[in-house]
Amino acid sequence: MISLNKLGSTDASCFDLLSCIFEIGPSDFEVFTSLKTGKWVDLDSVAETIGKGRTSVFKSLQRLVGLGLVYRESRNLKSGGQYHVYAMADFSGIKKIAQERVKVIESALDSLLEKLDNDLMQKCGLIL
Fold first, then answer.
1. What is the pLDDT of residues 21-75, one digit of tens each?
2. How far apart are CA 17 and CA 38, in angstroms?
3. How far apart are CA 28 and CA 35, in angstroms?
4. Fewer CB within 10 Å: C terminus or N terminus of the chain?
């Protein structure tokens, strides 16, 4: 995961932003960027495209779906049963989710800053 300090640098990237605010790593980002908006692919296709095992790709897809960055649909097999296909969420949706996450983080940081003086004074033994 990328630190907040990295986001303040001039060479910060999209990966840095997503990694920091959604706590995703390089493997998750590789799975994410292998997908396209509106183009549905199955787990095996993703695993083959990026050259990773099905289990690790599945875990990344689950994480990305949970974050709302990837969509999952169920499809029926002709012989019975189901399988899932995945596509990257649309860019405007991803940006909206990222903006909401940044607001939550910003609010949490503001709250911590409000408590900073008091907490430091307590830790230094200046307040009993």
1. 999 999 999 999 999 988 999 999 999 999 999 999 999 999 999 999 999 999 9
2. 23
3. 11
4. C
Neighbours of 22 (CB within 10 A): 20
DSSP for 57-90, please give it. Answer: HHHHHHHHHHHTSEEEEEEE-TTS-EEEEEEEPP
Phi, psi of 56 (to 5 degrees): -70, -35
Out of 2.60.40.1930, 1.10.10.10, 3.40.50.300, 2.30.30.100, which CATH number does the structure's domain 4-90 have? 1.10.10.10
Q: What is the pTM of this model?
A: 0.83
Q: What is the SS3 assignment for 54?
A: helix
Q: Cβ(90)–Cβ(37) under 8 Å?
A: yes
Residue 53 CA to residue 57 CA, distance in Å, equals 6
